Amino acid sequence: MKTVNKTLALIALASSSAVFAATDFDTLDVDGDGVISKSEASVDAKIMSQFKTLDVDGDGVLTETEFSAAE
C-alpha cells in the first residue's frame, strides 16, 4: 500500500505544472524521508541528468547537501 501511495503522489506531482518550475529539495522529496530517490528525481529532467554526478557517495539517493550542488 505504501508503494501505491508513493506512486500516486509521484503521478500527482508529475502532472502538476508546478513540478516543472520546482527544483526545491522539499518539493522533490515527495515521501519526506530526507532524501531524493531516482524515482522522485525523475520528474525533473535537469536533476536526472546530473543524478549520478550529484550522488557523491553512490548510495542511489540525493541528500540535501548533494542536491544543493546541482547547477
UniProtKB/TrEMBL annotation:
It comes from the Bacteria. The keyword Glycoprotein does not apply. Pfam families: EF-hand_5 (PF13202). Keywords: Signal. GO terms for molecular function: calcium ion binding. Residues 42-71 form the EF-hand domain. Gene3D superfamilies: EF-hand. This is Calmodulin. Residues 1-21 form the signal peptide. PROSITE patterns: EF_HAND_1 (PS00018), EF_HAND_2 (PS50222). It comes from Pseudoalteromonas lipolytica.
